[in-house]
Specification:
single chain; alpha+beta; Fructose-1,6-Bisphosphatase, Chain A, domain 1; D-Maltodextrin-Binding Protein, domain 2; 2 domains; 8 helices
Length: 270
């Protein structure tokens, strides 16, 4: 199977256009069994992505947030797609702009290809081994100049930390930031990974559970840009944990080896 990054970009753009069409037309939000929000935009975007992936890579399973919520959970095997059709539904419902379409290809437990698209702002990031890209969607199917991006390799005078707008204001995150002597900003959705990938931040801590589809696409892009992610125990993240309901039990994303070293030291102190 040869998945072309540009095909996944086109699929993310198509899903993003559908999300914005739903926003324009109006919608209602409902609660899933786990208490999280879902809208018709989530469902329509995932249907578009699932159909597109079936055309691009027949037989490769997709682990999608809404499919899993409905009990459609294929065996991921060695190679699968990991999809969050609308990451940041809470902000989408509130009328905000920080939500994304996330598509990732996972092989042998590691995300290797990823696309993150923010339909409301037009920001698009994509990555595969050896290539990380950023662009701005101009509407009507077009992208502005596609440029290479790279994570920062330098240790700054003060660590630039980005954390979740919703869950990144807890005591453990505050202690971690204090241990680093860092400066923190907050954002929603997988765009946080992309801030590291484009060199605008150094460390992204997440304490508490997230699902694999929340992290896989951003993880792939950050890895392609030269950064990485570790679990809270300092080890690598392994995707495809069906027996654990595809949960990730916290992580720290980092832009460089220096940032990873500083993050490990901070984890040991907090």
């Amino acid at each position: 199977m040869n998945v072309v990054l540009e095909d996944l970009i086109a699929l993310a753009l198509e899903a993003g256009r559908e999300i914005m069409a739903v926003r324009t037309a109006g919608f209602d939000a409902q609660k899933k069994l786990d208490g999280s929000l879902v809208t018709i935009a989530d469902q329509r975007a995932e249907a578009i992505i699932e159909a597109g992936l079936a055309r691009l890579a027949p037989g490769v399973p997709m682990i999608g947030e809404e499919a899993v919520a409905c009990g459609r959970i294929p065996d991921p095997g060695e190679r699968f797609f990991c999809v969050d059709p609308l990451d940041g539904t809470r902000g989408f419902v509130k009328g905000g702009s920080q939500f994304t379409v996330n598509i990732a290809l996972v092989e042998a437990g590691a995300p290797i290809v990823g696309v993150v698209f923010a339909p409301a702002t037009g920001e698009l990031y994509a990555g595969e081994p050896g290539r990380a890209l950023g662009a701005l969607y101009t509407g009507h199917g077009g992208l502005g100049p596609i440029a290479p991006i790279a994570a920062s390799t330098q240790a700054p005078s003060q660590w630039r930390i980005v954390s979740s707008d919703h869950s990144g204001r807890n005591a453990r995150t505050s202690a971690f930031v204090s241990a680093l002597g860092g400066a923190i900003t907050h954002a929603s959705s997988s765009i946080k990974f992309c801030r590291l990938a484009e060199g605008a931040a150094d460390i992204y801590p997440r304490f508490g559970e997230v699902c694999e589809w929340d992290a896989a696409a951003g993880h792939a892009i950050l890895s392609a840009a030269g950064g990485g992610i570790m679990g809270l125990d300092g080890g690598p993240l392994v995707y495809g944990a069906r027996e654990d309901n595809f949960f990730v039990r916290g992580f720290v994303a980092y832009a460089s080896a220096a940032a990873a070293s500083a993050a490990r030291a901070a984890l040991n102190r907090t």
